[in-house]
């Protein structure tokens, strides 16, 4: 454990931020699972809405340095590709 007061405070703030960041990452993962379920069931309208939500949340997380901006872009790209494949397969 740290002996210096500022170091103790830094530990406390880091723990708080860690919890918040885990919550945001978990929320993104939950929406991604819902998106994949919607794709599997063939519900493209719901999948489009979920993709918009995921895109917004990932971009915000990238701005807050919770996820890397390239990782966020890669995830959105892959989800978009999955949606387009499903839509084009239905046509």
| CATH H-level superfamily title | Ribosomal protein S20
Low-confidence stretches: none
SSE-based structural type: mainly alpha
Largest sheet: none
CATH fold-type name? Methane Monooxygenase Hydroxylase, Chain G, domain 1
Shape estimate: elongated
State the CATH architecture. Up-down Bundle
Straight-line N-to-C gap: 62 Å
Q: Give the helix proportion (percent range).
A: over 70%
Total strand count, please? Answer: 0
Report the radius of gyration as a whole number of Å.
18 Å
Q: How many structural domains are formed by the residues?
A: 1
Question: DSSP strand (E) fraction?
Answer: under 5%
Reading the helices and strands in chain order gives HHH
Helix tally equals: 3
Mean pLDDT: 95
CATH class: Mainly Alpha
Structure notes:
- The chain has a single domain, classed as Ribosomal protein S20 (Methane Monooxygenase Hydroxylase, Chain G, domain 1).
- The chain contains 3 helices and no strands.
- The longest helix is centred in the N-terminal third of the chain and has 37 residues.
- The chain is elongated, with a radius of gyration of 18 Å.
- The protein is an all-alpha fold.
């Amino acid at each position: 454990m740290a002996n210096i007061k500022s170091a103790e405070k830094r530990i406390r703030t880091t723990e708080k931020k860690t919890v918040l960041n885990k919550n945001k990452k978990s929320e993104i993962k939950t929406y991604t699972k819902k998106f994949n379920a919607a794709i599997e069931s063939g519900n493209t309208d719901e999948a489009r809405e979920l993709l918009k939500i995921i895109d917004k949340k990932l971009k915000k997380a990238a701005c807050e340095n919770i996820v890397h901006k390239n990782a966020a872009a890669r995830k959105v790209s892959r989800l978009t590709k999955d949606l387009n494949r499903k839509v084009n397969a239905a046509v």
